[in-house]
Specification:
Blueprint: E1 2-6, H1 12-22, E2 26-31, E3 44-47, E4 62-67, H2 73-83, E5 87-95, H3 118-123, H4 135-149, E6 154-159, E7 162-163, H5 174-181, E8 184-188, E9 198-199, H6 200-212, E10 217-221, H7 230-241, E11 246-250, H8 252-257, H9 286-290, H10 298-309, H11 323-334
Parallel strand pairs: 1-2, 1-4, 2-3, 4-5, 5-6, 6-10, 7-9, 8-11
Helix pairs in contact: 1-6, 2-4, 5-7, 7-10
Length: about 350
Amino acid sequence: MKFLLLGGTVFLGRALVDSALAAGHEVTLFNRGTHPDVEYPGVEQLHGDRTRDLSLLEGREWDAAIDTSGYHPDVVRASTRLLAANVKHYTFVSSKSVYADFSQPGVDESSPVATVTDEQLASTEQMQPPYGELYGPLKALCEQAAEEEMPGRVLNVRSGLLVGPYDGTDRFTYWPVRVARGGEVLAPGRPDKMIQFIDVRDMADWIVRMVEAGQTGTYNANGPVGQLTMRQFLEQCKAVIGSDATFTWVDDAFLNEHKVGMWMELPLWIPDSEADMAGFMLASVDRARAAGLTYRPLAVTIKDTLAWNQTRPVGPRRAGMDPKREAQLLELWHQPPSA
């Protein structure tokens, strides 16, 4: 098959190209060229700004397009409208952030999606992707736009937290790296709190298989639900790495009192006080698993992510707690309560 990838090869795009090539497909990349693409022999690279000019795609034919860079419905509509006559199948990589309510576990593809007002939509003209708090609702509108332009030919993939090698967000990477450093590790919240994420390579492999089979419709793509606690994750990091790390579990109340940032300063941590997020890492993946979504062992993801991280230049990271702040918080945590 001939694949067109609308997006770069920094993270998910890289995994998709790797998977498509491994399966014997031809790949064309179309992106702005802002980040250097990985040099793949035989992969055609087209550079252009899809928000302004799609002329390089005119008159070309592909069996399937995969869109990893659509954030605004107007942009997705323009792309699907142009490609509708010459592309048989369109995959739109969306996000679980489309959902309106995560207060309960088990959010599935039938759950209501978030909406935007006309005023909010108009305000995006003065904003840049990924549009802040409007990210999820706009992704939902992107799904609708694609389906309207290519009815019955669209696969919408509502992605959970993607992890693994080349993840520059550090929302997963922080933990293997921190555990590898050893010593006393500040572990956040309840040890038995469930967490959920998916190796980017597992999602990419599954998307390619779905495209090959011509599958359409909407699917949550995430890790298994209710099968991994934060304690199990950290202990597996320790076992895989062979670290001497010890874990000090610090409760939500203390972390909130000291204004520790959830999700980014302490990745994967969402305090129980955030009741509207109680189901954020408990989304249903039944439909995707029934359609063939599978997972590699967590130990492989941990090992490969750490190995990749060791190739990165030394410098600030996008997520994770500063070591000095961690040490200060641990010292405060161990202090006896004042009389």
